């Protein structure tokens, strides 16, 4: 979902990622079946972890999660 590790860390440090409803830190562990909610600007994306691997190719990365919902955030 987030293509650069440094950007993912920034988003997590800002409290814009939750794992199963709990605020996540950059070093948080995830497991298969966990639900992540990520706020991208004015969009809230909820995904479910489908698979975990140590290494993955860029074009295979999207197979590791399922998008459950995308919604606009009204602030």
UniProtKB/TrEMBL annotation:
Domain RNA-binding S4: 3-35
Domain of life where this protein originates: Bacteria
InterPro entries: RqcP, S4_RNA-bd, S4_RNA-bd_sf
Annotated keywords: Protein biosynthesis, RNA-binding, rRNA-binding, Stress response, tRNA-binding
CDD domains registered for this protein in UniProt: S4
Listed Pfam families: S4
Name of the molecule in the record: Ribosomal 50S subunit-recycling heat shock protein
Organism, as annotated: Aquibacillus albus
